[in-house]
Write a structure and sequence with these properties.
By secondary structure, the chain is α/β, with parallel strands linked by helices. Helices cover 64% and strands 8% of the residues. An eight-stranded mixed sheet has the order 7-6-5-8-9-11-10-12, with helices on both faces. The chain has a four-stranded antiparallel sheet with strand order 1-2-3-4. The longest helix has 55 residues. The two termini are 66 Å apart.
Length: 995
């Protein structure tokens, strides 16, 4: 078959450049997807990003070196390039299959046999390297092969060609990052995205093969150009060494910048996966713009070494200047959060402006960085050095990048963000000054010394005077748009290897907050007032201990403030507690906090392990009675993997047969659909689960082999625990039981009907969507309506009876359900007091009004009042009392109302509502059906809320009477007349599953 020829060489050239754009597009998809895969294996997004960048750059360096060594012996470089692209594509098609089997083998076969954590880390890093290094080496071959091949085909304007190739490849990479993160992963998951990249590589290979497989070009016979006096006076070997050093040092500096900027911008934009993709895209876009700008100038540079010196100094200066600009980005984000609407359009603009902020920080210095390689490679190719010099320079640059990445990660905790950025800038400035000294032979050494001294003094003044505002760093402006936090005091700050950790005090040290990259992880009050977060932290330990009082061993994933672990250790039955925390700086902050508020995190029965959860459990291979998972919010990059199918399948192997797994999850900044994706993921690994409300959060407790037992009084029998529980408004078993929202039997049908797949490591729906729900300020508080609806919904679906006949709720209750129940008790107290008003003043406004309305209806006997006032009061009483009071308690209220002198004169509809509510309180479901049926036919004249309630009551009655088919039929009759609420959907899906 003859090769395809294009008469217009310009068209052919454009086609090759377009193909190299596609190559860059797919190449950065690989880097992005490898980060996602390896953070599953290595346990943290920051570690994964470093490993991927290191191996990616290392492989690229090795590939470039191989190309440099052998390219001069290859007659058809473009054909070789096509073969390499084909192999890369085949690797892409098979990567997911290989990854799953290799990591499963590691977790279940190799890691359990290794006792040393250091050896495990070495093994994981080595295995991660083996999985992606071959593709990285092949990717490293592409630029030298394509660039040298293009120069052979188009020997004119070599510098411009090299710059354009670098531009197209970098631009493709910048676009690839965004398309991968915002489009492909959402559409086809991680496996589909990496397969897409593989298909692109295969298409590139086929097109290049069709264009070039019959071509044959000899390596170009380069001659030394000695018209430039600067070049004539320098030894070629020294020039080459200088250029390799330049490539390496600038590569190291550039990646120090990248690591620092990503951490800095995470504090402004948030540490979500999408934010990281925006930052990475901005970094690469700067490189591409730099290469594009230099393309027309590189062939005509009079003194390339002088030019490089200027560029390096400018790069260092511009990198340092980001410290000044950076402070203003917090103000921009605050303004943006206030100005943008919480809508889908607002979210698009939020990402757009986030990208602009990243560009403002990264673009100036990265544009300079983008100029260096085109100048270096063009200069060498044009002045005696063979085309293999391209690969050698590229190899030196990527080797320097590896060194920069490693330095940045290791030095981050020691130097902090500002000083680490200054280190990178110092490298560039010193390199630039060195190039001046080396190139400017006739330049006055005295002048050079003066310039160097001035730069040195200015550099040190700048670094010492410019400070990052610690309050802004810890503000979390990307969530609340606030930076005016003068009432805060920073007690601890450290830029750790995986995150920046802060401990701040508010309101004269009455409240303490631990933050990760500006996001609060735990809040503790130091005075009588408690934080809502404390309620959750205590209940995460107390509820499972109440359900499994024989627990002896426990593990907690995520240290936070240390309160959950501290509560566990108050229980005398717990003999061994393992605490798994991935960031050492978090442990330091928790210790400082513990010393201030009396929550010690060190205990003879506990041990803190710096590790990721998956590796910890796989390496120890121990089983526990309780495993409590308290990670950060799932929108934080890498965290959603602790809410996935694969994680729950893995963790279930390390729970004893009667043991419990406990999962924290928030109801704020999320929606019911995403909660469903998590419950679906968990449900497959456990036979039963129950969900309890805390305060804007839920606790999911799961058991793998049996149904979960009832709550016990065990936690109230321990004085220290009783004291802790009393402080958060939990003084009896009822205070715990009232928080129950349902079990697997009742809730699984509801969650399964949501059109969303279970959250998976490979289809990360939670990671992708939760950052948007955070921005939109959505919530899943509708789940609480399952408990607060004035029908015995949970009780009926669960098939549970009464354990008490008197409501006993703490006067200090803090959660919504508890407060409403307390109000119901106060209303009941009024009726018990036989018209006494002694308790009315202690009730909130809503319940005071109800009490007064009840008193007044006894005297409102006019016809119009009987039609309107009575019905409204009945509805209010039912909503306030039915969800919480026991049947015998409700009888007191109904008897009082029925004793009103004009009760017998009530209109028929109002009378039906009264008897319906009384039937509900008595669990008399035949009469519930009777009166709801009498009220339902005239639905056209009723408010939608009344229709919704009547439909819910009738459907629930059918369920109680074991007539699920009738419940389904009734819903079908009225489905067009009312928007199904969560309780209606719960009943409907329960009926569908059980009919």
């Amino acid at each position: 078959m003859k090769n395809i020829t294009l008469k217009n060489k310009g068209t052919l050239r454009v086609l090759y450049f377009s193909l190299f754009f596609c190559s860059g597009f797919s190449g950065l998809i690989y880097e992005s997807i490898w980060s996602n895969y390896l953070k599953l294996f290595l346990g943290h997004a920051a570690f994964a990003q470093v490993v991927v960048m290191t191996i990616f750059m290392g492989g690229m360096a090795l590939g470039s070196w191989i190309a440099a060594r052998y390219s001069v012996k290859i007659r058809n470089l473009l054909l070789t390039y096509a073969i390499v692209e084909m192999i890369i594509g085949l690797f892409g098609l098979s990567f997911h299959f290989i990854y799953v089997r290799v990591t499963d083998f590691a977790y279940f076969t190799i890691i359990p046999k290794i006792s040393s954590t250091q050896v495990i880390d070495l093994f994981k890093w080595t295995l991660a390297s083996i999985m992606i290094l071959p593709q990285a080496v092949l990717l490293g071959l592409t630029f030298p092969l394509m660039s040298a091949g293009i120069i052979r085909v188009f020997p004119q304007n070599r510098g411009k060609s090299l710059a354009l190739l670098y531009f197209n490849n970098s631009l493709g990479a910048a676009v690839g990052v965004l398309v991968s993160g915002f489009v492909l992963i959402k559409a086809v998951g991680l496996p589909g995205t990496i397969v897409t990249a593989g298909i692109i590589n295969i298409i590139i290979a086929l097109v290049v093969w069709l264009l070039s497989h019959n071509d044959s070009y000899d390596p170009i016979d380069y001659t030394i150009v000695k018209t430039n006096k600067e070049i004539k006076d320098l030894l070629p070997e020294r020039i080459f060494a200088v250029f390799l050093l330049c490539a390496g040092v600038t590569g190291a500096a550039s990646f120090i910048y990248e690591v620092v900027w990503i951490r800095m911008l995470s504090l402004v934009l948030g540490s979500s996966t999408h934010a990281f993709e925006l930052m990475l895209s901005a970094f690469i876009l700067g490189l591409s713009i730099g290469s594009l700008w230099i393309r027309k100038k590189v062939d005509n540079l009079v003194s390339p070494i002088k030019t490089l010196g200027i560029i390096q100094v400018m790069m260092g200066v511009l990198a340092l200047s980001t410290l000044i600009i950076y402070d203003g980005t917090f103000n921009i984000m605050a303004y943006m959060m206030a100005a943008l609407s919480k809508t889908n359009q607002g979210y698009i603009l939020f990402n757009l402006f986030s990208h602009i902020i990243a560009l403002v920080i990264m673009l100036p210095a990265t544009i300079c960085a983008g100029m260096t390689l085109p100048i270096l490679t063009h200069y060498l190719v044009s002045n005696q050095y063979r085309e293999d010099s391209i690969g050698k320079v590229y190899a030196a640059n990527t080797l320097g990048s590896i060194i920069g990445i490693i330095l940045a990660v290791q030095l981050m905790p020691l130097l902090g963000l500002k000083n680490l950025l200054a280190l990178g800038a110092g490298l560039d400035i010193i390199l630039g000054l060195g190039l001046f000294l080396y190139a400017m032979k006739k330049f006055s050494r005295k002048s050079w010394i003066i310039i160097t001294t001035i730069l040195f003094v200015l550099f040190n003044l700048y670094v010492s005077l410019v400070q990052l505002d610690p309050l802004k760093l810890a503000s979390g402006v990307f969530r609340n748009g606030k930076i005016d936090l003068d009432d805060r005091k920073i007690l601890f700050h450290k830029d750790g290897k995986t995150a920046s950790i802060d401990l701040v005090a508010e309101e004269n040290e009455s409240e303490f907050i631990i933050l990760t990259n500006g996001k609060p992880e735990a809040t503790i009050n130091n005075k009588a007032k408690i934080s809502l977060d404390e309620i959750t932290q205590v209940l995460l330990a107390a509820i499972p201990l109440s359900l499994h009082s024989d627990a002896k061993t426990a593990a907690v994933i995520g240290l936070g403030s240390g309160m959950t672990s501290n509560v566990l250790l108050k229980f005398p039955g717990i003999k061994k507690l393992d605490i798994i925390e991935i960031e050492p700086a978090m442990v330091e902050a928790a210790r400082i906090l513990g010393n201030r508020v009396g929550i010690p995190i060190d205990n003879p029965r506990s041990e803190i392990h710096i590790d990721d959860a998956k590796t910890f459990f796989a390496s120890r291979n121990n089983k526990y009675d309780l495993i409590i998972s308290v990670p950060s919010n799932p929108w934080v990059s890498g965290v959603s993997n602790l809410f996935s199918v694969e994680f729950y399948d893995l963790i279930s192997n390390y729970i004893n047969d009667d043991g419990l797994f406990v999962q924290w999850m928030q109801l704020y900044e999320i929606n019911i659909s995403l909660v469903s994706s998590v419950i679906k993921a968990l449900s497959g690994a456990f036979k039963d689960y129950v969900i309890y409300e805390t305060a804007f959060d839920i606790v999911i407790i799961a058991k793998k082999n049996n149904v979960i037992d009832e709550l016990s009084n065990s936690v109230f029998d321990v004085p220290e625990m009783q004291s802790l529980l009393s402080r958060i408004g939990v003084e009896s078993l009822q205070d715990l039981a009232i928080r129950k929202l349902g079990s697997k039997r009742t809730l699984d049908p509801l969650f399964k009907q949501h059109v969303i797949q279970p959250n998976s490591d490979y289809f990360p729906v939670l990671d992708i969507a939760s950052v948007k729900t955070r921005y939109l300020k959505q919530n899943a508080n509708d789940l609480i309506t399952l408990r607060t609806i004035h029908l015995p919904l949970i009780e009926t679906l669960e098939g549970s009876g009464f354990h008490d006949d008197t409501l006993s709720i703490s006067e200090k209750s803090y959660n919504k359900t508890g407060l409403l129940a307390l109000g119901a008790k106060k209303v009941l107290d009024y009726f018990r007091a036989a018209n006494s008003t002694s308790t009315v003043d202690t009730v909130n406004y809503l319940h005071r009004k109800i009490v007064r309305d009840i008193k007044s209806i006894h005297h409102q006997c006019k016809e119009e009042e009987l039609k309107t006032v009575w019905l409204g009061t009945l509805h209010a009483i039912a909503k306030a009392t039915l969800p919480y009071l026991y049947p015998n308690e409700m009888e007191i209220i109904w008897n009082d109302i029925e004793s009103a002198k004009c009760f017998s004169a009530l209109p028929e509809e109002t009378s039906h509502w009264f008897y319906l509510y009384r039937a509900v309180s008595r669990r008399d479901f035949k009469n519930v059906l009777k009166f709801s049926s009498l009220l339902l036919p005239e639905v056209s004249n009723k408010p939608s809320t009344e229709i919704e309630y009547l439909l819910t009551a009738a459907m629930l009655a059918y369920i109680a009477l074991n007539e699920q088919d009738k419940a389904i039929s009734l819903f079908k009759r009225y489905q067009n007349k009312v928007k199904p609420s969560l309780p209606i959907r719960n009943i409907l899906y329960f009926a569908n599953q059980n009919h």
